[in-house]
Structures are given as structure tokens and as C-alpha cells.
Amino acid sequence: MTKRILELRTGLYPDAATLDAALRSGAEDASVTRLDVSTLAPDDKRAWEAAAAAILAADVTVTA
Predict the structure, then answer these.
(1) Environment class of residue 7 by beta-carbon count within 10 Å: exposed (0-12), middle (13-18) or buried (19+)?
(2) How much is the pTM?
């Protein structure tokens, strides 16, 4: 079974490129989805609901 990994891009980590490279090289048996929430407006209910759904659907969530 393919593991579902969500990379949640928050803009809080200056070394996000290293995490991205690690996921690309070590996730051959996984499905990696990248979601950028760094620019979402706090009152954008639809976008935050979609982000929450993506988090709940993932087997593993990492922040970058």
C-alpha cells in the first residue's frame, strides 16, 4: 500500500528545500502531496477546510 505524505508548506522553516529534497529522494513508495498554506487568509474558510481535509487524508504530515 502506498503511504500518503502531505508536505504542508507554512513558510516558517528556512530549510524547507532540504525537506523537499529528502521527500523526493526517499519517497519512492509514497505519494507526496504539497500544499502551500503560507499565504492563506485566516478567514478563507473554504481553503482552510480543504487543508484540513488534506491533513486528515494523509498518513503522514510534515511541515516545511
Answers:
(1) buried
(2) 0.80
Cα–Cα distance for residue pair 1/47, rounded to 1 Å: 29
Q: How many domains does the chain have?
A: 1
The Cα–Cα gap between 11 and 51 comes to 15
Residue range of the domain that includes 34:
3-63
> Residue 51: pLDDT above 90?
yes
Per-residue cell: 62: 510534515
Q: Which whole-number Å values give the CA distances from 13 to 24, 29, 44, 49, in the listed order? A: 18, 25, 23, 23
Give dist(CA 19, CA 6) in Å, integer.
Answer: 12
